[in-house]
Design goal:
It contains 6 helices and 15 strands. The strands form 3 sheets. The protein has a 9-stranded mixed sheet. Helix 5 packs antiparallel against helix 6. The longest helix is centred in the C-terminal third of the chain and has 15 residues.
Length: 291
């Protein structure tokens, strides 16, 4: 991890990192963390706009060489997941500062690929129009989270989707994200030029130009699913919206195949170790080319 420098990022991530409370102690989490490791494995220059408390030690677990601009805040965003027989209960104990376009280092405003990755409703909606001329991936789950006074995370309507999704190149979410209102699948599909809804081991659905297409997931033994959706979205964005250096670039079907392939590998490992390795990316690209 390095401080911001005057360079144009290949992959710009905007969103909070998460301090995850776990039985093993604090762990780095959040979409930007998994996406950063994934983009770095592709050999891309990664930049991250986030907000944390000063001297946040978990920032050291971001990819080596990633450039990070962390806006100082009293607290880092802290999540805790409590699992019971009836399911998962999630808490946000603290939330860092809201991120706005004026916080961007000047050189980052020309980033080649942009990924808006909120986890706690922390990203100013203005970012979407700000980067309207760039390929944008949106993973909107954090815009549908509400923090109750005791920190309990509940869902809320995302009434501002119309100010974000039409500007996106691709929006990726899981059926878990909209469990509170499954009809949002079709609402969002009508707003976004390209929407992908993932369904874990059941694959998912791609909505493009008024057509819905299903895709399958790879059959694997799951160890931990955390981060798989973030990895899927990042791989797809790089391949579909990239600069032409990858053989699968530009094809929705091939990008989905690779994203699903690498996401399936991710659930066989835990936490940030689930991000793909450069060798796995090379193997997946070769398989994609053969097909």
């Amino acid at each position: 991890m390095t401080e911001p420098t005057e360079f144009t990022p290949d992959y710009l991530l905007i969103g909070h990192i998460a301090h995850d409370v776990t039985p093993q102690g604090p762990q780095l989490g959040g979409t930007v963390s998994y996406a950063a490791h994934t983009a770095a494995a592709f050999g891309l220059k990664v930049a991250i706009l986030t907000s944390t408390r000063p001297q946040e030690l978990l920032l050291a677990d971001l990819p080596h060489g990633a450039s990070v601009h962390s806006v100082p805040s009293e607290h880092t965003t802290i999540f805790e997941n409590i699992y019971t027989d009836s399911g998962r209960t999630q808490y946000i104990h603290h939330r860092a500062q809201t991120l706005t376009p004026d916080m961007l280092p000047p050189a980052w405003r020309s980033a080649k690929l942009v990924h808006l990755a909120p986890i706690a409703n922390e990203i100013d909606l203005a970012f979407a129009a700000f980067f309207a001329d760039r390929p944008i991936c949106v993973t909107p789950q954090g815009w549908m989270r509400h923090r109750e006074p005791d920190g309990l995370v509940t869902t809320m309507p995302w009434d501002a989707a119309e100010y974000v999704l039409p500007y996106s190149t691709v929006a990726v979410l899981s059926e878990e994200d909209i469990r509170h209102d499954p009809s949002l699948e079709y609402t969002f599909a009508n707003m976004a030029p390209l929407l992908i809804l993932t369904r874990a081991e059941r694959g998912g659905t791609v909505y493009y130009q008024g057509e819905a297409r299903q895709f399958a997931a790879h059959r694997v033994t799951q160890v931990e699913p955390t981060g798989a959706g973030d990895i899927f979205a990042t791989v797809f964005h790089i391949l579909y919206s990239g600069t032409g250096v990858y053989q699968c670039t530009g094809s929705i079907d091939n990008a989905v195949k690779m994203a699903a392939m690498l996401a399936s590998k991710s659930v066989q490992r835990v936490r940030l170790a689930s991000a793909p390795t450069p060798d796995e990316i090379t193997e997946a690209l070769a398989a994609c080319a053969d097909n």
